[in-house]
Amino acid sequence: MEQKLREYAKLLIEVGLGVRKGQTLVLACPVECAFFARMCASAAYDAGAREVVMNWKDDCLAREKYLRASDDVFDTVPEWQKHFYNDYAASDMAYLAISATDPETLRGVEPDRLVRAQRSSAEALDPFYRRQMQNAFPWCIASVPIPSWAKKVFPGLNADDAQAKLWDAIFAAVRISGDGRAVERWQEHLSTLERRRDALNALHFKSLHYTNSLGTDLTIELPETHLWSTGGSVSTTGQRFIANMPTEEIFTAPLKTGVNGTVCASMPLVDNGNIIDGIRFTVRDGRIVDCRADRGEEFLRAAISVDEGASYFGEVALVPYDSPISNQSLLFYNTLFDENASCHLAFGEAYPECIEGGAQMERAQLQEKGLNYSITHVDFMVGTADLSIVGTLYDGREVPVFVNGNFVI
Ligand code: ZN
Ligand code: ZN
After folding, report:
1. Distant-in-sequence, close-in-space partners of 41: CB < 8 Å, separation ≥ 6
2. Ligand 2 center to residue 348 CA distance, Å?
3. CA of residue 71 to ligand 1 center, whole Å
4. pLDDT value for 108
5. Residue 184: its H or E element
6. pLDDT digits (tens, 9 = 90+) for 108-129
7. Per-residue pLDDT at 360
8. What pairs with residue 400 in β-bridges?
9. Cα(157) to centroid of ligand 2, in Å?
10. Per-residue pLDDT tens for 58-69?
11. Is the omega angle on the peptide bond into residue 400 within 30 degrees of 0, that is, cis?
């Protein structure tokens, strides 16, 4: 176990971020896994980090705050917090966010408080988020188990066993087996993703058509200058990093006003601690004109109403049904893992890197090119074992991309 943990910490620092000598590491981690944060800090110092700055997270205290803090708290962000994020973002830093949360931690919290907090934070920390979106610094989001979350994933087990099982599931998802070869395996995995990305870019589809037995029948037009990307990125500082660890996806942006039809989610969505199941969207000219869910429909409606762009799509991601996460047939109740088990779409913001020259463009220019802008970005899963995706080229020819849930290119 100790060996696997050390291998994971090293993987995050070396492959996830590529921390270099003299760089500051800002590290967010749940208090329950302080031992793992220490391992990451140690691996960062091994890589020559200048300083590791901790940003502790506590799920229980977050819940208490949303339930019990004064109402005005959710409309403001203190100056010191703006400085913390915005100043580090402007410096030579790497950012590692180890996130873990009980999927139902915000159950019972007024959705309005969550939306207001999200809005004020998006505004106050805009310089940070913009630099993050532009890949101005290497950043990586990864996860570790906490007891409350582990119990949700393995409800039949006692706390210790559930925690141990969730560690095993995470190790399998991030390709760690304890043999010390994780860094190598990741390099192989990234080159497979890059090969497929290059093939998709060479095809240069005009649109994609999704169908499956759940009832999805959706056409997605792609911007003319769209680019497919993988989870492996290069920061403007020239460092290779992986924004989400694990990552199995190859993704691009849809044309904001070019999505039409019906799409059904294939797995529950956990958003702001609320479980939303049985999602069905009707989309016309890009806008979600009808949204249904068997459970949590009010949270879904709140999520797509955060701002104008929240009811348009911002991401199209392809993930084979046959992947180390999908093969575990486990619902993690955590988007980081669940989105990598399945083809997904996101409503909300599109990534600038998904069109040619996008990383250098201002927001207005990105919108002109057909990308959606929003303060939110929420992934939902659409992949199934019988998902078919057919691409249409500019000359009208059709090319199968997915047959029975897996890549055929
Ligand atoms: Zn994605
Ligand atoms: Zn996404």
Report:
1. 25, 27, 52, 54
2. 9
3. 33
4. 87
5. helix 182-203
6. 899 899 989 999 999 999 999 9
7. 85
8. 390
9. 31
10. 999 999 999 999
11. no
Question: In the structure encoding, which two tokens stand for residue 255, read together?
Answer: 């044309």
In angstroms, the CA 44 to CA 72 distance is 38
| Residue that has been written with the tokens 């500019």 in this structure | 394
Which residues neighbour ligand 2 (ion) by CB within 5 Å? 315, 346, 379
pTM of the model: 0.82
Q: How far is the CA of 335 from the centre of ligand 1 (A)?
A: 9
Tokens at residue 344, please?
């997904």
What stretch of H or E contains 283?
strand 280-284
Q: What are the helix (H) ranges across 213-362?
A: 297-303, 335-338
Output the CA 380–ligand 1 centroid distance in Å.
Answer: 9
- 54 DSSP assignment: E
Contact 30, 100 (CB under 8 A): yes
**What Cα–Cα distance (Å) separates residue 118 from each residue in 75, 97, 298, 349?**
9, 18, 17, 14
Neighbouring CB atoms inside 10 A of 63's CB total: 20
Q: E strand or H helix at 83, and its extent?
A: helix 79-89
Q: How many A from CA of 269 to the centre of ligand 2?
A: 12
Which pLDDT does position 168 carry in this prediction? Answer: 95
